[in-house]
Amino acid sequence: MTTTFETQRTALADVVAIPVTPFAEDGSVDEGTHRALLRRLLDGGVRTLTPNGNTGEFYALTPEERQLVTEITIDEAGDRAVVLVGVGHDVPTAVACARHARERGAQMVMVHQPVHPYVSQSGWVDYHRAIAEAVPELGVVPYIRNAQLHGDRLAELAEACPNVIGVKYAVPDAARFAAFARDAGLDRFVWVAGLAEPYAPSYFSAGATGFTSGLVNVSPAVSLNMIEALRSGDYPAAMKVWEQIRRFEELRAANGSANNVTVVKEALASLGLCRREVRPPSKPLPEQERAEVAAIAAGWSI
Using an 8 Å Cβ cutoff, are 276 and 259 in contact? Predict the structure, then answer.
């Protein structure tokens, strides 16, 4: 029987939450707080979770910690959410993580953009094909941040690997996204706006049906309000949410997104939900910006 991945495709056409990874005072992963934050997302209506995403500080976690985060998320999600596990690094490591995710009960993996100074177009296909072929039962979602990648390369990958079902597209160019999606096959994939709420309205207008979010950790209701507006085609309502979250996302995007995770954790800390600590090369916010983030978070309907 051919796998259709309908459950996974539906889960991608939604708010794809990227949970933070909270740390304890001794610097280890705070499992109890992590579980509480995940339950808060689930209770808030989130139905798609991505452990080991960038908002979860994927590249700052050890291999053992990445496994722990995967296991905690799958355990808490149960039958309440679909889990899309972030994998990456070298091919053997990514394959091992994908197989671990499968064994633990995840339904999908997201393949982080290859971290390498020299990425060829065909090499990009080979990298993702090796991972996708290792877990044919799982839906596979490439995370595309490379503006030079051509849409026909994604089509080539999908021809070889039918389990490549969605794309997290994170190039900050709506026109390029529209062209890339059509060159790759607009209807073949579920297109996820990978730059979160600030880009969601423009990417939805070009064919996206889901978006990723780190902000959702702070206020699930805000993110869900945006996707409901976008699903109904009410762009004025979506832009009202956009205006509501604009400053928060500007702080995250400043200085080459240096404080992308830091701002989210600071907001959570201001609400008493987790510690503010992030791992290098990220760094906590200075006092002045902490106050601004706290004021924004306090003004949302939490």
Answer: no
Tokens of 163: 């389990």
Give percent of the chain with pLDDT exceeding 70. 99
Look-up of token digits 């993702």 = 128
Radius of gyration of the chain (CA): 18
Environment class of 99 (CB within 10 Å of its CB; exposed 0-12, middle 13-18, buried 19+): middle
- Stretch 82-93: mean pLDDT, rounded? 98
- Between CA 231 and CA 44 the distance in angstroms is 19
Q: How confident is the model at residue 301 (pLDDT cuts 50, 70, 90)?
A: low
Q: Is the dihedral of CA 281, 286, 290, 293 positive or negative?
A: negative
For residue 262, pLDDT over 50 is answered with: yes
The 3-state DSSP class for residue 33 equals helix
Q: What one-letter code names the amino acid at 61? A: L
- Cα 53 to Cα 34, 88, 249: the distances in Å are 14, 10, 17
Q: Specify the pLDDT at position 1.
A: 38
Q: How many residues does the chain have?
A: 302
User: Cβ(129)–Cβ(159) under 8 Å?
Assistant: no
Q: Give the rounded distance of the alpha carbon of 206 from its chain centre.
A: 19
Give pLDDT, residue 3: 72
Mean pLDDT computed over 185-200:
97
Measured CA to CA, the distance from residue 290 to residue 275 in angstroms comes to: 13
Cα gap 254→265, rounded to integer Å: 16
20: CB partners within 8 A, 6+ apart: 37, 55, 56, 57, 214, 217, 261, 264, 265, 268, 274
Q: Are 166 and 190 in contact (CB under 8 A)?
A: yes
What is the residue whose two structure tokens read 């996206």? 208
